[in-house]
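Weekly structure sync - notes
Attendees: PM, LS, DV (DV joined late)
Agenda: review two folding runs queued last week.

Item 1: First target. Sequence and structure tokens pasted below for the record.
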Amino acid sequence: MTSLRIATYNVHRCRGMDGRVRPQRIASVLHEVAADVVALQEVHSVGGRRKEDDQARYLADELGMHLQLGTNRRWRGGTYGNVVLSRFPLGDSCNYDLTVTGREARGCLRVDVDVAPGMLLQVFNVHLGTSYFERRRQGKRLIEEVIVRSDGRAGPLVVLGDFNEWTPGLASRLLASRLNSIDVRMHLNRGWTYPGLLPFLHLDHIYFDERLELASLTLLRSRTALVASDHLPLVGEFTLLPRAPSSR
């Protein structure tokens, strides 16, 4: 059986709690995380200037990982959106538009990760909106247009990211009805992940299907992580099962 370390991390454009944009700090945090696959949100990449300005490429190069970028919008001369980094080769990808009219552009980046011979892991990197009614529409679209259509594809799937659910909402309930959800209180002795310095909200989530088994969950709270972004990396240790069990 294959073990996988999978993380989700909203890097907040690499702007830390001190107001400084420091991709180097995010890279240091990711070195600490040492994940096989990382889903990043709020990544700003501007080409043709300093290498640190292309945050997606800079982080991939610093960690020696493969990169897939899902652009949700153009912003300040570059791209802004979700990124998947992987120690394994990447295959097909698709960036699904979850934008609700009148609200900020949002998306879900799906990437196939070649984790073992003949085995693909489907990674869905999600960043939902801040409005309750916006997330209701996005949750339905995510399930009906993204997850359901991927059920027939080869390989297990994991859905993770920043769901911006200030209170439990439809997106979480819909995903939990189809996938295994994580009760963070069982692993972290707390029910919150955000903000990093004094968490009181549960915004960062990981969902997975029956072909994955969760071994442990951690929220990295190192000194660097506490200042590098307003979020902290949520990290799951998984075992890739040889076949799906007959029941949950």
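Item 2: Second target, run right after the first with the same settings.
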Amino acid sequence: MPFGVLIALLSYSLYSCGDALVKSFTGQLGVFEIGFFANIFALVPAVFAKRPGEHWRQAFRLSNPWLLHIRGVAALISSVAITYSFTTIPLAEAYSIAFLQPLFISLMSVILLKEQVNPTRWVLIALSFVGVLVVVRPGFRELHLGHLTALIAAFAGGTSTTLLRMVSGRETRLSVIAMNGAYQIAGNGVLMLFAFSMLTWPQFGRLAAIGLLGGTAQLLIIAALNRAPASRIAPIQYVQLLWAIAFGALFYAEFPDFVGILGLIVVVLAGIATIFADGARTRIAGRWSEFRARKEGPKFTEVEGPEI
């Protein structure tokens, strides 16, 4: 197994640990307060994402300011929405719905980027959607607002990724990271004032851990893409579903039934098959990053701060 794949496995595992900690704040803190402090601490490892020759004073010299501002809003909406989902519905269900993001990316790539999506990929994406329906089973069980916010997170995340692809090559990685971080911290910081709760030291420690885990995972993804093609790393993101089941069962008494597990299996298999169906244009589509592998090898497009 390539070393880059092992690094990616560690990265997505750290993200899952952070998400499990987010869920521990259910009924304790508001989503904006969680997002604010987590993103503050994520800046610590993010400092090391700066490339040699880049300077922080140049971070906000933008070639496409409006697109990056819109992307910042979309990323903020996605992070707030998925945080609410983590704190209100089972982790595995939140992940399965969030993994519909490639569906929205494909739709937007056709509409906005005028790309051609082959029929095989549409079939596999539709199969992913069917898998999510099996997990959630609308009409057969009670749905909650958290299921809707997970869908909103997938749509907003898809919008964020599509806008990223539109500015790819015209903005520095530093600018993209800085703009995303600014919206996450400023947006959550302002909104948390309307429902602020004084933190205890254990809560403060957990928020610090969430941010540090996410920021470290971000650096690991960068390292992984420097050591292995995206086509090998992309399937690893689905390990988050396995962690969601494990953490949900161990710490939150969340036990998916047999039908739900079958649905999760469909989501994973369809997602992995979609990655291989992409050929030379493999994408890693998640809340934090988007990469492509081209024929000449893996090319870094962007890694952003954790949208927790």
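Discussion on item 2: Residues 201-225 form the longest helix (25 residues).
Action: LS to circulate a short write-up before next sync.
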